[in-house]
Amino acid sequence: MSGSRRRIGYSYLLEQFADIDPYLEDIRALVKTGDFTLGKPLGEFEEKFARLLDLPYAIGVGTGTDALMLSLKILGVGPGDEVITTPNTFVATVGAIAMAGARPVFVDNNEEYTIDVTKIEETVTPRTKAIMPVHLTGCPADMPRIMEIAHRHNLLVVEDAAQAILAAIDGKSVGSWGAAAGFSLHPLKNLNIWGDGGVIVTRSAELADNLRLFRNHGMATRDEIDFWSHNCRLDTLQAVIANRLLEQVHAITDRRIANARLYDEAFADLAEFINVPPRRSNFKQVYHTYVLRVRNRDRLYQFLLSKGVEAKIHYPIPLHLQKAAGYLGYKKGDFPQCEADCHTIITLPVHQHLQSSQIEFVIDCIRNFYH
Ligand SMILES: *Cc1c(COP(=O)(O)O)cnc(C)c1O
Predict the structure, then answer these.
(1) Does ligand 1 come within 6 angstroms of the Cβ of 216?
(2) Residue 291 near residue 10, CB atoms below 8 Å
(3) Where are the alpha helices (DSSP H) in the chain?
(4) 39, 239 Cβ separation under 8 angstroms
C-alpha cells in the first residue's frame, strides 16, 4: 500500500478554485458595467452552453430544480397529471414534479441506476403526461427506448440531466432527446459555479421564447406582462463564473472518465465482492459520481473513512419511503432493485483533482479490505 495518509476528499472545490484571480478579474469587469440581471455574460453563456450540446437554445435559471419544474410547467404539466420517474434519484427530481403540481409515479431502476425501461409501460395511465428520466451518476438513461415508449403513448419527455453534462448515447448528448431538459450548475456538479444555477435546453424556438419570459415575471418588455410568472433568472455574476468553467468542462469530464476507468479495471478482479455496473460501449458516462454495489457495504464504508477516503452513499433512503412521499401510498417492497441498492451502493471519489496515486490508494484500501 502506498504510504500516503493524505485525506482523499469528496469535494474538490478548494483545489479547483485555488487560483481565483482570473475569476475575480472577470467579476471586476462585470461590476464595472453594472449589468447584473440578464446581462451580456448570461447571453454569452447560454449561447455557448447550447452549442456545447449541439442544441439551438439554452436558458439560464436559478437552480437545476427550477430548470426541471419550469420545463414541466411550460409544457403544460400540472395538477391532475402524472409524471413517471424513479425513486432512486436526488430529491429534486421528484420535488420539481410535485412543485409543478403533478403526481410523481415511480418505476424501479435497473443495474445502471437509471429507470428500468421494461417497467415503464405498466405504469402508464390515462393521466400520464410525461416521463422524467434521470441520467443518474452521469450515466444516460436508455433514451432510445424511452422516446419510443413516449411516442407510443403520446407522452412528453423532460430529461433530468443535472448530473450528466456531456453524457451521450451514440454521440447524441443527453438533454437533446426529450422536449426539454434541466441541468444543474451546483458547486459539486461537473460544470459548476459559485452557488446555485441551472439551465434548460430545448430545440423549440417557441418554448425557448416562452421560457425567457417565464423565468422573468412573464415580462414581454419592461412595461408589458404577458402572463404571471416566476422570477427565476441565472445571476449574471454566476454566468461570468460559468463562462470560465465552460472552457474547462471537456478536460474535467475526460479526467473523471479516466479515473473511473482506473477503478473499473482494478475492480474487475474483485467481481466476487464488487459489482461494477454495466458500461455500454455506445454510452458516454461522465461520472458525476462513481457508484459500485459492494459486499459488506457498511463495513467497507467505515473502513474507507478510517483511511481518510471520503466515500459517500447516494442515496441511503429511496424517495418512495420518505415521509414526503406518504400521500403517494407506496410501501416497502414496491421497488426491489432500488431498495436493495440502498444497502449495497457506495460512492468513491472520482473528481478531476485526484492524482492517480490517490486512486491507487483507494484501490489498495479496497483490496486490503476484501483480502
Ligand atoms: C443536483 C440535482 C438536481 C437539482 O439541481 P440543483 O441545482 O441543486 O437544484 C436535480 N436532479 C438531480 C438528479 C440532481 O443531482
Answers:
(1) no
(2) no
(3) 13-16, 21-33, 40-52, 64-74, 91-99, 143-153, 205-214, 236-246, 249-267, 297-306, 336-344, 356-370
(4) yes
Please indicate whether residue 163, judged by its CB atom, sits closer than 6 Å to ligand 1. yes
The predicted-structure confidence for 22-61, as pLDDT tens digits, reads as follows 999 999 999 999 999 999 999 999 999 999 999 999 999 9
Ligand 1 close to Cβ of residue 162 (< 6 A): yes
* CB proximity list for 261: less than 8 A, separation 6 or greater: none
Compute the distance from residue 53 Cα to the ligand 1 centre, in Å: 19
Q: What are phi and psi of 202, to 5 degrees?
A: -160, 160
Q: CATH homologous superfamily of domain 249-370?
A: Aspartate Aminotransferase, domain 1 (3.90.1150.10)
Of 93, 191, 196, best ligand 1 pocket probe by most atoms within 8 Å of the beta carbon: 93
- Site of grid cell 429511496: 318
What is the spatial distance between Cα 85 and Cα 160, in angstroms, rounded to a whole number? 10
Of all protein residues, whose CA lies closest to atom 7 belonging to ligand 1?
A: 64
Give 286-312 as a DSSP string. --SSEEEEETTHHHHHHHHHHTTB--B
Kindly tell me the burial class for residue 99, based on how many C-beta atoms sit within 10 Å of its own C-beta (0-12, 13-18, 19 or more): middle
Q: Say how many Å lie between the CA of residue 168 and the centre of ligand 1.
A: 18
**CATH of 16-246 among 3.40.640.10, 1.10.10.60, 3.40.47.10, 3.40.50.620:** 3.40.640.10
Instruction: Return the ligand 1 atom nearest residue 182 CA.
Output: 10
Pocket test of ligand 1: the residue of 70, 139, 163 to mutate, having most ligand atoms within 8 Å of its CB, is 163
Residue 4 has pLDDT above 50, yes or no: no
Domain-wise residue ranges, the chain? 16-246, 249-370
pLDDT in tens, 182-223: 999 999 999 999 999 999 999 999 999 999 999 999 999 999
